[in-house]
Amino acid sequence: MPSLGARQRLSTDGAGTEQEAPRLFAFFKPRGMETTCSAGSDLRKFLKRGQLHPVGRLDRDTTGLLLLSGDGDCTNRMLHAGIPKTYAALVRGVLGDNLIQKVLSEGVELADGHVDVARLEVIDGDDVPFGIVAYPLSSIPTNGCSMIRITTTCGRNRVVRRTLAATGHPVLLLHREGIGSITLPPGARPGDPPVSISVECIP
């Protein structure tokens, strides 16, 4: 991975003014974007000519917070630290209290292993994030559906979609709201340029 060390500096203007290179950037991934660095990926134009790379991935149809890093060691630590990730989702069916308590207390068994869920709750319309309402909801049947928030430290491929499907409530829309304490900047919109964040690396 390309790496910007903590002491490396980037030129920021034509006059040659320099500042220490930020290690992490928050990016609002839009729907339909592949989060790879391969040729032809829409994400490449946000990677500062290869100086940044995504910290993990979001699948093509998931919106929300994607961290971009300029430091390979920082990325590796973050990917293996068990950091909680929080998502909002529109799912089929109505989640009952008994199911929610069962998932929170017992977790969910998938074909590739157990998934612990730290948070699972139904949220109301006033709490729905922009990443969800930005979808053309008119094209999605929402009758008999629930808007939920879920947090897990598991980072396996499509784990939130698979976990909710295993409970009998497949995902229609999925939006990542936060990674640990990091959230998208207020007013951010899908596809906005990445914003540097003050935290250098977690943990």
Biggest sheet descriptor: 9 strands, mixed
Oligomeric state as shown: single chain
**Which structural class matches the secondary elements?**
alpha+beta
* Name of the CATH class of the largest domain: Alpha Beta
Through-space gap between termini: 20 Å
Overall number of structural domains = 2
Protein name: Pseudouridine synthase RsuA/RluA-like domain-containing protein
GO biological process, one term: pseudouridine synthesis
InterPro entries: PsdUridine_s_RsuA/RluB/E/F_cat, PsdUridine_synth_cat_dom_sf, PsdUridine_synth_RsuA/RluA, RsuA_PseudoU_synthase, TruA/RsuA/RluB/E/F_N
Pfam family, one: PseudoU_synth_2
Structural notes for this entry:
15% of the residues lie in helices and 30% in strands. It has 203 residues and is an alpha+beta fold. The longest helix is centred in the middle third of the chain and has 10 residues, at 97-106. The chain folds into 2 domains: 22-81 and 180-202, Alpha-Beta Plaits; 84-179, Alpha-L RNA-binding motif (Alpha-Beta Plaits, 2-Layer Sandwich). Strands 3, 4, 5, 6, 9, 10, 11, 12 and 13 form a 9-stranded mixed sheet that branches. A two-stranded antiparallel sheet has the order 1-2. Strands 7-8 form a two-stranded antiparallel ribbon.
